[in-house]
User: Which sequence fits this backbone?
C-alpha cells in the first residue's frame, strides 16, 4: 500500500472507509450513494490494500460494472501507476476482472497496453491467467518483439503464457531460460511466509510436536527473539492449555506499530484449541474483521463459525459482498438463505467477473438447496 506520512484510513462506519477496506457493507451501501462513483474511483486511483496479498480487483470491478461507471479513468491510471508499491498491479486486477465480463472496450484496451504500456509483461501475464486464450494468444509476436527490443532485461516468470509460447518462439524460450525477473510481488510474499513457518521449527529445534515444550518455555517470555516462532508452533500444534499464551500473542501483535499481519495464525490456533481463552478472544476476533489487511479476513470468519456459529449471520451475509474470494466462498457455503440472499448466490454463480472457485461454490450451494426442497 502506498501511504503518505499524513494519510490514514477513514472510519469503517463511513462509506469511504468501508470501501477502502473492501468490506461487504461498502459495496452494498455504494449502490444507494450518489457519491459512490467518486469513492470507487478513489479506491482505484490509490491502492488501499495493506499488502499485495490483499485483493480488491473483483470487488472494485464489480462496482464499476454494476454502477455503470465509465472505464476511461481506470485505463488512464494503468499508464500513470507505478509498480514499486503495487499500485499498477492493483489497477490491473480491476481492469482484468472487467475484461472477463467483456466490459466497455477493456479487452481491446488491455491488448493495446501490451503493445505500448511500460508494464506490458505484467499485463499480459494477468490476462493470460484470467481470459480465454483466443483473447490474447495472437499477441505472441508483439511480446517477442518487445523482449527483443531490450527495453527491460529479458527475464520472464514461468507459467502462462510464457511456457507455452516458449515452445513456439526462440526469443521467448531464451528469456524464460534466463530465469524470473527480480520483482517483489505475491510470490515473494508467499515465500517469505513459508520461510517464517520453517524458521518457527528450526529456531525451536526439532519437529513441530517435539518442539512444543521448548515453544511453551519461549512463549512465557515475550521479549525473547524467538517469541513469534514459539506462537506459530503453539497455534499449529498446541492444545487448550496453550490458549492463554495465544491470547497474549494477540496482545503482543497489538503492541507492534503499523503491523496488521500475523493475527490469522494466532486466531486459527485459538479456534483450533478452543476453551476459555478462545471465547475471551472473540471480541478481538470480531474487531479484526475491519482490518484493511483483508487477506486474513477469511480466517476470522472461520474462527467465528467454529467458536460462535449461531452469532455469525450478519458476518456471513456481509461476506457475500466481501473483497476476498475466500470470504465470499465461506459465506456462500454457510449463510442461511432467504429469497434475497439466494438471488445474491445466483448472481455470484453467474457473474463472469467472479472467481471460478466462488462460482463453483455458489453452484454447489444452490444445487444442495434445490435438492432438499
Assistant:
Amino acid at each position: 500500500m502506498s501511504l503518505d506520512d499524513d494519510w490514514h484510513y477513514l472510519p469503517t462506519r463511513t462509506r469511504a472507509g468501508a470501501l477502502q477496506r473492501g468490506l461487504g457493507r461498502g459495496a452494498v451501501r455504494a449502490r444507494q450513494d450518489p457519491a459512490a462513483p467518486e469513492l470507487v474511483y478513489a479506491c482505484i486511483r490509490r491502492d488501499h490494500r495493506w499488502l499485495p496479498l490483499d485483493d480488491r480487483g473483483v470487488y472494485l470491478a464489480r462496482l464499476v460494472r454494476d454502477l455503470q461507471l465509465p472505464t476511461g479513468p481506470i485505463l488512464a491510471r494503468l499508464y500513470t501507476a507505478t509498480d514499486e508499491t503495487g499500485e499498477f498491479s492493483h489497477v490491473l486486477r480491476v481492469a482484468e476482472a472487467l475484461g472477463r465480463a467483456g466490459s466497455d472496450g477493456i479487452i481491446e484496451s488491455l491488448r493495446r497496453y501490451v503493445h505500448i504500456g511500460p508494464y506490458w509483461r505484467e499485463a499480459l501475464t494477468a490476462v493470460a491467467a484470467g481470459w480465454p486464450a483466443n483473447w490474447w494468444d495472437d499477441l505472441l509476436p508483439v511480446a517477442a518483439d518487445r523482449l527483443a527490443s531490450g527495453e527491460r532485461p529479458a527475464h520472464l516468470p514461468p507459467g502462462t503464457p510464457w511456457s507455452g509460447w516458449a515452445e513456439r518462439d526462440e526469443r521467448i524460450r531464451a528469456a524464460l531460460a534466463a530465469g524470473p525477473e527480480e520483482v517483489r510481488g505475491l510470490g515473494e510474499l508467499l515465500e517469505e511466509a513459508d520461510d517464517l513457518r520453517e524458521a518457527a521449527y528450526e529456531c525451536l529445534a526439532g519437529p513441530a510436536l517435539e518442539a512444543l515444550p521448548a515453544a511453551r518455555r519461549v512463549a512465557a517470555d515475550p521479549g525473547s527473539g524467538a517469541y513469534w516462532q514459539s506462537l506459530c508452533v503453539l497455534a499449529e500444534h498446541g492444545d487448550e492449555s496453550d490458549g492463554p499464551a495465544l491470547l497474549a500473542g494477540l496482545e503482543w501483535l497489538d503492541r507492534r506499530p503499523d503491523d496488521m499481519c500475523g493475527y490469522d495464525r494466532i486466531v486459527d490456533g485459538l479456534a483450533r484449541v478452543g476453551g476459555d481463552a478462545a471465547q475471551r478472544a472473540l471480541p478481538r476476533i470480531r474487531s479484526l474483521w475491519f482490518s484493511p489487511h483483508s487477506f486474513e479476513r477469511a480466517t476470522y470468519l472461520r474462527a467465528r463459525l467454529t467458536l460462535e456459529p449461531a452469532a455469525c449471520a450478519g458476518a456471513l451475509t456481509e461476506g457475500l459482498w466481501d473483497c476476498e474470494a475466500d470470504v465470499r466462498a465461506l459465506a456462500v457455503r454457510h449463510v442461511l438463505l432467504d429469497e434475497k440472499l439466494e438471488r445474491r448466490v445466483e448472481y455470484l454463480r453467474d457473474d463472469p467477473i467472479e472467481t471460478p472457485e466462488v462460482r463453483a461454490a455458489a453452484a454447489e450451494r444452490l444445487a444442495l438447496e434445490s435438492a432438499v426442497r
Summary: Residues 44 and 313 are 30 Å apart (CA to CA). Confidence is low (pLDDT under 50) at residues 182-186, 199-205. The chain has two domains: 15-157, 239-371.
